[in-house]
Automatic annotation (TrEMBL):
This is MGS-like domain-containing protein. GO terms for biological process: 'de novo' IMP biosynthetic process. It comes from Polysphondylium violaceum. Keywords: Hydrolase, Multifunctional enzyme, Purine biosynthesis, Transferase. GO terms for molecular function: IMP cyclohydrolase activity; phosphoribosylaminoimidazolecarboxamide formyltransferase activity. Belongs to the PurH family.
Length: 526
């Protein structure tokens, strides 16, 4: 019996091949893979000894040969296939282990040239996958090293034939999916790479920020989820391999993540990465109902919680720094569904792990700080909308702000205005944020008119709103919101400006001596 091994990622291949060798398989392999196996003391037949052609064209042609593909595509039960095998001296291959050149990793590097990218488009390996998968009744195809263990154990205990037809089909399906997302990545890369006025050696592509003529997301399925937004909806999680973010986060403790947990966890991550200072957010239904920045993380948590203690129950907590034991101690008595942080002090993790229902998530390294480069994608009936992500608001952005009123905000108020402005970016439009001491006091989210959001802020904040700053994610179309702000004793306002009634709105602020700052840009979130 013959096995063909040709892998870029060589982890686990020696151990798996040893099992095959012990079971009497003839191991056939390509250059680098063969070397790893020989170095480990295994007897290997080189592909070039089977094909009687050397690997050529810098390895572009290794396994592309009828002696290999005849061995993969033959159906031994058909007499005329048997005749061909005998006539051309081809021996069937029963098991194929392949994984492809690292195309996604290669094009993710900003320094990658077009030539590097093209060299990393795997042709032969891909063809091995397709041929073996097409003939899955006769050939076992393995593309995922995590399958070595169970298949190895099975072959060892019960032989190759014990792998059932259903299992073979699943492996073939996985292999086709693997090839499919690989081709999607190539398609996306080629549709965005700019080769105008550049040599093939130097042309660089950045597939993540431009909008291609044809868009094929390069997502890989990560998990089936129990259900979707509601129990009667089916759902699954897909991720961009090595793409960071919540889709590649690690669940350290607790029950499996739900669709809504992931969605809210994403909102938490996006909200805390807006701040370079130590921050804590409480998310409910994708809106931050509490958020605070403070150099003491436990204090940031307590302030965020106190923003709206009633709504915090069952919320999603987000941190942009390693979670300390002090913060874990402060939060442990409240019921939260999920907590996300870039890391956890061991004592903090141990303490929180006592809470059975709490899902504790570690966000991949640097994800709480790095800028988004992935486009925002949203499906619509019959298509999709893409946009570049709304960038992180820099401290320097206040240099472009204009004070529209006679009264100027104080330095402390400017700090709070910038804080509230940043928060308003993460609240569903029409968004109004009341804040004090870089902490949310109340939010008005998702209302069909702006003054209604102001109203909600006043009601939810109650006595606490006195002296707050107010941020609005888009301009005030009328002066009614300023009247409400005055009645609530709001100290200062930030908003984009740009309404045809700006003057009326500014006049109202002047009438009440409320300083008002115009940012010049809008932060809708629909
Ligand atoms: O350049 S290729 O597209 N041409 C081929 O004929 C071929 N056959 C296998 N790349 C080819 N492979 C790939 O080589 C496999 O998919 C695998 O990723 C890699 C293993 O090469 P080596 O064993 O030399 O490290």
């Amino acid at each position: 019996m013959q096995a063909l091994l040709s892998v870029y990622n060589k982890s686990g291949i020696v151990e798996f091949s040893k099992i095959l060798a012990n079971k009497g398989f003839n191991l056939i392999s390509t250059g680098g893979t063969a070397k790893s196996l020989v170095d480990a003391g295994l007897k290997v037949q080189q592909v070039q000894d089977v094909t009687e052609y050397p690997e050529m064209l810098d390895g572009r042609v290794k396994t592309l040969h009828p002696k290999i593909h005849g061995a993969l595509l033959a159906r031994p039960e058909l007499p005329h296939h048997q005749e061909d095998l005998t006539k051309y001296n081809i021996k069937p291959i029963k098991i194929v282990v392949v994984n492809l050149y690292p195309f996604v990793e290669t094009v993710s590097k900003p320094s990658t040239t077009l030539l590097d990218a093209l060299e990393n488009i795997d042709i032969g390996g891909h063809t091995l996958i397709r041929a073996s998968s097409k003939n899955f009744q006769n050939v076992i195809i393995i593309v995922d090293p995590s399958d070595y263990k169970w298949i190895g154990e099975r072959i060892e205990s019960s032989g190759l034939e014990s792998i059932t037809l259903e299992e073979r089909k699943k492996l073939a399906l996985k292999a086709f999916q693997h090839g499919c997302s690989y081709d999607a990545a190539v398609t996306q890369y080629l549709s965005t790479v700019d080769i105008k006025d550049q040599t093939i050696e130097t042309a660089k592509g950045n597939p993540s920020v431009e909008f291609p003529g044809e868009f094929v997301p390069l997502y890989e399925k990560k998990a089936d989820l129990r259900y979707g937004e509601n129990p009667h909806q089916k759902a699954a999680l897909y991720s961009i391999p090595n793409g960071g973010g919540i889709a590649n986060a690690q669940l350290l403790h607790g029950p499996a993540l739900s669709y809504n947990n992931i969605l809210d966890g994403d909102a938490a991550l996006k909200a805390v990465r807006e701040f370079s200072q130590t921050a804590c957010v409480v998310i409910k239904h994708t809106n931050p109902c509490g958020l605070s920045v403070h150099q003491d993380q436990a204090e940031a948590y307590t302030r965020a919680f106190n923003g709206d203690p009633k709504s915090a129950y069952g919320g999603i907590l987000g941190f942009n720094r390693k979670l300390t034991l002090a913060a874990a101690t402060a939060l442990k008595s409240v019921f939260y569904e999920v907590i996300i942080a870039p890391d956890y002090e061991p004592e903090a993790l141990a303490l929180l792990s006592k809470k059975e229902k709490l899902r504790i998530i570690r966000i991949p390294e640097a994800a709480t700080q790095e800028a988004f480069t992935q486009p925002d994608i949203r499906t619509i009936t019959g298509g999709a909308l893409l946009q570049s992500p709304n960038p992180i608001i820099k401290d320097e952005s206040t240099k472009n702000w204009k004070v529209a009123t006679t009264n100027q905000p104080s330095e402390q108020q400017m700090k709070d205005l910038l804080f509230a402005w940043r928060v308003s970016k993460h609240v569903k439009s029409n968004a109004i944020v009341f804040a004090k001491d870089e902490t949310i006091v109340s939010i008005g989210a998702g209302q069909p008119n702006r003054s209604q959001s102001v109203d909600i802020c006043c009601k939810v904040g109650g006595d606490k709103v006195k002296g707050c700053v107010m941020a609005s994610d888009a301009f005030f179309p009328f002066a009614d919101s300023i009247d409400l702000a005055h009645a609530a004793n709001i100290a200062c306002i930030v908003q984009p400006g740009g309404s045809i009634r700006d003057q009326e709105v500014i006049d109202a602020a002047n009438k009440f001596n409320i300083p008002m700052v115009l940012t010049g840009n809008r932060n809708f979130l629909h």
